[in-house]
Structures are given as structure tokens and as C-alpha cells.
Amino acid sequence: MQRTPRATGIGSLPGTDVGAAHRLVFDELPDLAFLPELPARGVGADMAGRGTALLVDFYAEVQPSGWRLADRPGRDARRAAAFLRQDLDSLEENAQDFTGTLKVQAVGPWTLAATLELRHGDRMLSDLGAVRELAESLTEGLKLHLAEIRKRAPRAGRVLLQLDEPALPGALSGTVPTASGFGRLRAVDEPVARELLAQFPVIEKALEAMGIFIWPMVELEADDALASAAAVGAEDPTVDRVVICTPDKDLGQCVTADGRIVQLDRRTGTVLDRAGVTRKFGVPPESIPDYLALVGDSADGFPGLPGWGAKSAAAVLARYGRLEDIPALGISWDVDVRGAGKLAATLQDRLDEALLFRRIATLELDAPVSASVEDLRWTGPAQRFAGLCEWLDAPRLAERADALAAIRAGDRREG
Predict the structure, then answer these.
(1) Which end of the chain has the lower number of beta carbons within 10 A, N or C?
(2) Rounded Cα–Cα distance for residues 78 and 98 (Å)
């Protein structure tokens, strides 16, 4: 009997057709579907716009420099909220009979703070008091959002919450640029970051009691969780192949030579194995962190090195593989790259910075995720869930969870 591959995606998909995106996800990912996001729809559908739509009593508007806090909801806030409602309406339409695991994603407080600007124009990350207030608002908003997800997808076996913090490494290392772009914000102390994120275990406890499986990433990122989960899946004998459904460049490093882990490029509809990653970036999967260290990755909040572009980085790394193995003098390079001398000098002058960027781009494979793919199966809420719902002033949530558990139990008996 042929085993069914398990796959999911980070959340973003190309295009603007919401209905088509949901149909694609629920048709192709029957075990671990996700709520698709379509940032190509424009302002309000982007990561920051979706994050602001989840906030409670916080509003934002778009300025020439990006999203900025506002006193009241305006056109941009209404647009972001409308996109979210549209996505939830489409979810409800497509998920009525879905009984697998449903993943929803949300931007974390540090990344949102690194993106939003205060009213006077500096990034919110520069004011830790404001960041704490933002985290409290996001926490409240996520509770409401997850309750709405459960309502829209009543038969989903489990709801998985993915908190994305791509800018957290940059915040901790002091590489997040100021609003002007001419400087860098002061690094956030790790104990401060831990203290702020400590409030999220309240949500996590409620979700765990509901039976929702979560991968809380405090020190690591969502990409680390996906890389670790891919490694777990590749070792599971019941899994034929692990398909990482995301266009994120850094996840290309997870693709294996034996074809057990591949990456799906939805823009072209092709599966990227080792040869496919090499064709796309010009370097093999193991050189992806070095490649990103040179060219930068805006999603993870680091700029790369001045002068280095995709073509020069690919050409040099295809020959030398790692940053440390690139000759210090451009005249010693045996590859034809324009401006080799200047590029080599930049690399030597800023080698420590490049190594830091590579460390940020290198995904961890020991993130605290599922011990096995079977862990994702929902078996119903714990007994403590009813009491927790009373404490949260949401008693009907326990009733809905119990009803859903009964439905799931019946489905398993029939299967």
C-alpha cells in the first residue's frame, strides 16, 4: 500500500484569487492544510498588514516609509480587516468537511514591532514599553482569531498555530535598520525578549488543553520549526517524501541529495530537488546560508554585503562553496566575476558580519517540534479544558470542542 506524503506551507502563496488558493490548499494538502495568505493583493494583505488586522485597540496606516501607528482605524486598517474577513469566508466555504490538521500563522510581536513605526516615525522596536503593549494587544487578538478559526472550520482535527518571528534574530543582533535606513536599532537583550514572549504560554496552555498542537518558537523561528519537522518526517518510515511548500529561500538548504526532502515552487508548479535548488540559486542546498549571507534576506532582517548580488554570489560560491574558502584576493579567484577585487575586499573587511548573517540564515534542526508525524493527530480536548474555558469566559468553546471530538471519534470508527 502506497504511503501518502505529508506536506504543508508557511502560509503565503502567489496570486490574488482567494478561492483558488483555498481550493488548492485543501485539495493538495489533505493532512496538514493551512490558511493561505495572498500578499500580492496589495496593502493590507502583506505580513505587516495582516498582523495589524489581528491587533486589539491598535490601529495602523500606510505612510511612504511603511506601516505606522494611527489614532483611529482608517482606509488601510479597514482594507487589512477586509482581506482577513475574505480569507476567513473562503476558509469556511472550503473547510466544512475538512478533518485533518489546519495550520494558521501570525506574525510575532518582535517582528511586528520591527516593522511598525511609532507616530513620530521611528520603529516601534526602539520603544520597549510600546513593544510590550503591542504584545498584549496581539495576544488578545490571537485568542479571538483562533476562536473564529475553530468556528469557521468546525470539523478540523487540530488547529496548529505558527508564530513567525523572522526579525527576532536581527533584533537580538542589532541589525534591524532604523526607519531612515541610515542606522541600526540597538540590540534587544535576550532576557528582555524572553520576558516579553513569556506571556504567550498563556495562549499556549489554552491551545494545548484544547488539543491543538503548537510549535512555540521562543529562541528560534518558524523556518527552524519547519526544517526540524522536515527532518523528523524524513526519518519516519510511514512517510514517502517530505514536501516543504514555501518559496522561502532559506528553506532550500533543507533539500536532501537522496530526494527524501524537496521544496515545492508553487509559482512554477515544479518540485525542487537538489538539482532544482542548484538551478534556481546557482548553488547547492548546503551553500544556501553562505549565499544569503552575501546577498541578504529581507525576510530575516539582514542586508547582506554591499556590492554582492545574486549572480556574483552564485558564481563564487559554486566554485568555493563556503565563505571561509573564498580567496582573500580577487586576483586569486579562478571564476570570471565583474569587480572581483572590490567584492573580495568587501568580504574581507566585513567577514565577521558575513559570518553573523550566515549563522542567522542557517536553520536549526533541533527545534522543539513533533517527535513524530503521528503527534499531529487530534484526539480531543483534555479534561482541564472546560475549567480553562470558564476562566477565559468562553464556556461555549469547550462545548464545541467536545462536540467536535465526538464527531472525530465517529469518523475514526467508520474508517
Answers:
(1) N
(2) 30
Residue type, 179: A
- The residue among 171, 170, 179, 167 whose CA lies nearest residue 122 is 179
How far is residue 310's CA from residue 297's CA, in Å, rounded to a whole number? 11
Secondary structure of residue 256 in the 3-state scheme: coil
DSSP single-letter state for residue 325: G
Percent of the chain topping pLDDT 90: 37
pTM of the model: 0.51
Q: In this structure, are residues 185 and 206 in contact, taking their beta carbons and an 8 Å threshold?
A: no
- As a CATH number, domain 280-361 is 1.10.150.20
Binning the chain into helix, strand and coil, the percentages to the nearest 5 are: 50, 10, 35
Residue type, 267: R
Joined together, the cell numbers standing for residue 71 give: 489614532
Dihedral (CA of 300, 306, 311, 315) sign:
negative
* Cell numbers describing residue 393: 469566559
Give dist(CA 315, CA 338) in Å, integer: 11
Q: Quick: pLDDT tens for 156-188.
A: 877 888 888 888 888 888 888 877 777 888 888
CA 118 to chain centre: 24
DSSP assignment of 348-365 equals HHTHHHHHHHHHHHSPPS
Report d(CA 16, CA 12) in Å as an integer.
11
101-107 and 158-164 strand pairing: parallel
DSSP state for residue 242 in the 8-state scheme:
E
Stretch (H or E) spanning 63: strand 59-63
Helix (H, G, I), strand (E, B) or coil at 305: coil
> Which residues make beta-bridge pairs with 262?
243
Which value, in Å, is the radius of gyration of the alpha carbons in the chain?
22
Q: Tell how strand 270-272 and strand 6-9 pair up.
A: unpaired
Cell of 186: 540597538
Nine cell digits for residue 10? 508557511
Each domain of the chain, given as residue ranges in start order, spans 6-219, 280-361, 383-410
H or E stretch covering 243: strand 242-245
